[in-house]
Amino acid sequence: MGGGTGSLAKAIAEAFPQIHCTVLDLAPVVAGLEGRRNLKYMVGDMFHYIPSSDAVLLEWIMHNWSDEECVQILKNVKKH
To answer: Is residue 23 classed exposed, middle or buried when 0-12, 13-18 and 19+ CB atoms within 10 A define those classes?
Structure first.
């Protein structure tokens, strides 16, 4: 979520090829980025929808939002 160009997800995908990583971010951020066999990019908004997954990585996300917005993000994570 809010993964930008996916530098952390790329490192995880390369180190652990059995793990499938999805980078979720807004369209202007992920437009034109190409995934790999176990890395894909998905257009989305963490305030509206977070795709189902086994784990969600929030690196450098919560510091940028108000407490209320952080609660909304975490509620969306919990839905899946």
So the answer is: buried
Query: What is d(CA 4, CA 61) in angstroms, rounded to the nearest whole number?
Result: 11
Q: 66 phi and psi, to 5 degrees?
A: -70, 165
Token pair for 45: 């908004």
Rg (CA), the chain: 12
Given the residues 20, 48, 63, 80, the one annotated as active site: 63
Q: pLDDT tens digits, the chain, 80 residues: what are they? A: 678 889 999 999 999 999 999 999 999 999 999 999 999 999 999 999 888 899 999 888 899 899 999 999 999 998 87
For residue 42, the cross-strand partners are 24
63 is catalytic: yes
